Structure prediction request, 223 residues.
Amino acid sequence: MRCLRKISASFAVAAVLLALCFGHPAAAKPLRIELSSPLVDVGSGPENCTPAISGFGGPPVWQVQLERLLLDGKALVEMSREAKPNRLPLCIADRPVAANVEAELSFVAHDGRVARAVGIVLRFADPQDYYIVEADLLRGRVRLLRILNGERRQIAERAASLAMEKSQTLGVRAVGEKFTVHLNGEVLLETRDGGIAAAGRVGVSSRADSFTSIGDLFIATLD
Prediction:
């Protein structure tokens, strides 16, 4: 019996060490949301996400386009490019619905006179209520915004090394009120906000006349 207790204790210690090293098992295998399958034609609409518009302007036009700098050679691009600074074209994944998530995407910024931006949308309830982590290449920053009842508030921002015509990775981990944002695998900022606590969907965003290629979205639920 004493031997069994020792074995049991050893397994318990090993489990704790594994959890500390690798995180919770539920987050080990992210869900890949394929936004632009390499099998579909250029000019096709988005896969596995629903277009929406936040702010001003007409409906977004999301299309699959060629992108040699991303892994599968194709990407999702917002093609209408209306030059309104407060226009946020969104494409929201149908699943999962969760409050606590880790999400990541790769992108390549090509052009934009008014804006050159790309973002990850979190806890999306509707176009009036959600968080967004946005990489802003014109201003050289990454920031967390909260849109609540249609009112936009910047929660935090940090200067960032962002390059045009280069594949980069933007990611965010949201657990409760804590948000950790990373760029190219390195933590860029950590902040807290409790404005939106409810579970919601995850998605991608553009801004104004940005011409940005967006790769697939990887999401791990942490609830």
User: Anything to note?
Assistant: Residues 28-221 form a domain with the Jelly Rolls fold (CATH 2.60.120.560).
